[in-house]
Design a protein that fits this description.
The protein is of the alpha+beta class. It contains two helices and four strands.
Length: 73
């Protein structure tokens, strides 16, 4: 299993964070999405090894009007 940490520029409330988690869980190969209550802009996404998952994550977030940056993989 692999993980990518994503930084989201926008401040998101708890409801929107849950929406983001639900949206990420619909992507193929994604198995878990975690938020840090103390760092609400950071999201950790765990996924099966697959060449296109990180770019799929970014594209999905951007399609929802969110501005993400991968900060660690």
């Amino acid at each position: 299993m692999h993980a990518v940490q994503v930084y989201i520029e926008e401040p998101l409330n708890a409801s929107r964070l849950q929406d983001v988690k639900d949206m990420m869980m619909t992507l193929p190969h994604v198995h878990n999405v975690e938020f840090n209550d103390k760092l609400p802009h950071d999201i950790l996404i765990e996924f099966d090894a697959n060449y296109n998952v990180p770019i799929s994550i970014l594209e999905k977030l951007e399609s929802e009007g969110i501005h993400p940056d991968i900060i660690s993989a």
